[in-house]
TrEMBL record:
This is AAA+ ATPase domain-containing protein. SUPFAM superfamilies: P-loop containing nucleoside triphosphate hydrolases, post-AAA+ oligomerization domain-like. Pfam families: DNA_pol3_delta2, RCF1-5-like_lid, RFC_C. Residues 33-192 form the AAA+ ATPase domain. The keyword Nucleotide-binding applies. The keyword Transport does not apply. Keywords: ATP-binding, DNA replication, Nucleotide-binding. One of its GO terms (biological process) is DNA-templated DNA replication. One of its GO terms (molecular function) is DNA binding. InterPro entries: AAA+_ATPase, DNA_pol3_clamp-load_cplx_C, DNA_Rep/Repair_Clamp_Loader, P-loop_NTPase, RFC_lid. Heterotetramer of subunits RFC2, RFC3, RFC4 and RFC5 that can form a complex with RFC1. It comes from Dipteronia dyeriana. One of its GO terms (cellular component) is DNA replication factor C complex.
Amino acid sequence: MLWVDKYRPKTLDQVIVHQDIALNLKKLVTEQDCPHLLFYGPSGSGKKTLIMGLLRQVFGPGAEKVKVENRTWKIDAGSRTIDLELTTLSSANHVELSPSDVGFQDRYIVQEIIKEMAKNRPIDTKGKRGYKVLVLNEVDKLSREAQHSLRRTMEKYSSSCRLILCCNSSSKVIEAIRSRCLNVRINAPTEEQIVKVLEFIGKKEGLQLPSGFAARIAEKSNRSLRRAILSFETCRVQQYPFTSNQAIPPMDWEEYVSEIASDIMKEQSPKRYINLREVNGIRRVLLTPTNYNLDSILRILLSTTRLFQVRGKLYELLTNCIPPEIVLKRLLYELLKRLDAELKHEICHWAAYYEHRMRLGQKAIFHLEAFVAKFMSIYKGFLITTFG
């Protein structure tokens, strides 16, 4: 078992970081009926840990007895029937799911599936709680239609259902939902708090930490506790006993993004030389009497461009479940390290522009590729102007 899961606090009393918030949550569920809650904060700050501790506080140990289900629902959408498959994590008292996993069809999840779950009270309430809790992840990624449907669901089934919403940014959640929830801001832990957690894990594992080693891991983690613990375990696997100058390995995907940035900086022109095999392929296509050879030639020519190569690498990151917003942010960071100061403001402007466009659209790869193409155009123009 990974240390992230092994040492995750099971109750609010075991929380090391955000102890003040844990104490307030305990008071909330003991003094009055629990309202709808909206937890928001950066990734790796501990939102899910506090949510699971809260469920344990409300429903007892039964909240930990969960099962994973891959369910398929048939949704009647007017003139057609839609099959939606979604993974849920559920116990007798709560259900956890991510409606945004189905993309632009998320409104059907909210309209039908959540209504179905909200209508059913828990089987074994023992006279304590007469409601079921629905935990919805990534509500900031829901479409506007889905968010408005969620608002109506909150009003209609408030007597039998409580919603715990989780997201990274509350600004992308409509005001109608935020005003109906108790908003709980979860700040990223400080480096001192991360060091405290790492020293706690090291003590439990019987490890000797050199002076300043935990602090260096915390500094590299960008204040993400999850990332710090994963890096700590990686260092343990790679080398133990630890040394004072031991390198903290970066994430594999970060190294991959750094390679992409280097490729972009090396060549901005979309063209390169076509090799002999590709020339022979074009010749064979031209000798065929069909009318679609132009498409085949275009595919061969596109495969020879630097932009096409970068697109393939970006697509590989997306298929490995790296969020496109994180890819764009990291790519911008790597490019800015290699850029002249006079270009940085313009590149940041276009990164923000394409991030906004990416949130409005459905195909993230299009907007990532558009940003790379825009960067190539700007940087190539800068080189021509400067060096001729």
